[in-house]
Amino acid sequence: MLSYRHSFHAGNHADVLKHSILMYVLQYMNRKEKPYVYIDTHAGAGVYDVLGQQAQKTGEYLDGIARLLNQKQPTTDFLKPYTDLIASFNSGQNLHYYPGSPAIAQRLLRPSDRLILTELHGADAANLRDSLGRDRRVYISQEDGLKHLKAILPPPEKRAVVLIDPSYEIKTDYDLVIRAIQQAVQRFATGTYLLWYPVINRSATESFIAELVKCQIPDMWRLELCVEADNNDRGMTGSGMILINPPYSLAGDATESMAVLHQRLAQDMGQGGTILQRLTEE
Ligand SMILES: C[S@@+](CC[C@H](N)C(=O)[O-])C[C@H]1O[C@@H](n2cnc3c(N)ncnc32)[C@H](O)[C@@H]1O
């Protein structure tokens, strides 16, 4: 039984990190004419109403995307396409809708590219279909995203961006994700993989990263943004992305933006911090 609904969390600091990196990667893929496929294993509902009951109950977006959009200070070249895209889903400065990863990808992909989206929750799979509308490039299925991923790799395009963004509702999800990544890379070593993880308990996070490093997958990176100091009793204090085969320019281009994100999104007098780390060599 799935209880997680992303509508409570859409636009929070974790989405800001995840979606700004996703956009950077997709823009980089668009530089080459050759088509590619975008695979989103845990797609969510597509577009979220941040004025709706669920987002209003937590108000998480207020300490995430709203802080970035409301500030007058210029943002970085890395972040600007992301904030512009979020603004384009809204009118003026009034934040009403926040696009999730599938809706962001739908805007960025070209006519010859494809989107393959899996979402296990029935209501969110239906919302996803409604949000994305009729689009010949998009294939949506309601099933387990990690099993489906194994079945569709390698893709015929031989170019792919894979976003793995689980809700980690069950402890075993961490092991399942590691196994799925290993299998995916065995089948399709040249894909670009983006894996999101939460920081809830620092030692558990470091063990998870250590397990990933043990897989010896080449060219693996870690980008992490914590908006609060580590604290095992406060829930999610930050989150990170594991990137495999990212654009060569990402680390250099993201450095300043990670600091800017921390400066603007950190709670409690700038606690927390950022990590930008190469985990394995090419
Ligand atoms: C963090 S949310 C996804 C957010 C989305 N990727 C975004 O960035 O906008 C995780 C989603 O995974 C779904 N989910 C949970 N287990 C799943 C599974 N085994 N396969 C596919 N989807 C799953 C949940 O219902 C939830 O909508």
Describe the structure.
The chain is 39% helix and 18% strand. It has 282 residues and is α/β, with parallel strands linked by helices. The protein has a single domain, classed as Rossmann fold. It has an eight-stranded mixed β-sheet, sandwiched between helices. Strands 2-3 form a two-stranded antiparallel sheet. Helix 8 links the parallel strand 6 (160-164) and strand 7. The radius of gyration is 17 Å and the shape is globular. The structure holds S-adenosylmethionine. S-adenosylmethionine (SAM) binds next to loops. It catalyses: adenosine(2030) in 23S rRNA + S-adenosyl-L-methionine = N(6)-methyladenosine(2030) in 23S rRNA + S-adenosyl-L-homocysteine + H(+). It holds the Pfam family RsmJ. S-adenosyl-L-methionine binds at residues 19, 42, 101, 119, 144-145, 165. One of its GO terms (molecular function) is 23S rRNA (adenine(2030)-N(6))-methyltransferase activity. Keywords: Methyltransferase, RNA-binding, rRNA processing, S-adenosyl-L-methionine, Transferase.
* CATH class category: Alpha Beta
Strand content: 15-25%
Tell me the count of domains. Answer: 1
Kindly provide the radius of gyration, computed on alpha-carbon positions and rounded to a whole number of angstroms. 17 Å
> What is the string of helix and strand elements?
HEEHHHEHEHEHEHEHEEHE
How many strand segments?
10
In helices, the fraction of residues equals 25-40%
Q: Give the spatial strand order of the biggest sheet.
A: 5-4-1-6-7-9-8-10
The appropriate CATH architecture is 3-Layer(aba) Sandwich
List the uncertain runs.
Answer: none
Q: Biggest sheet, open or closed, and with what strands and sense?
A: 8 strands, mixed
Binding site for S-adenosyl-L-methionine: 19, 42, 101, 119, 144-145, 165
Enzyme class: transferase
Site (Interaction with substrate rRNA): 4
Family: Belongs to the RlmJ family.
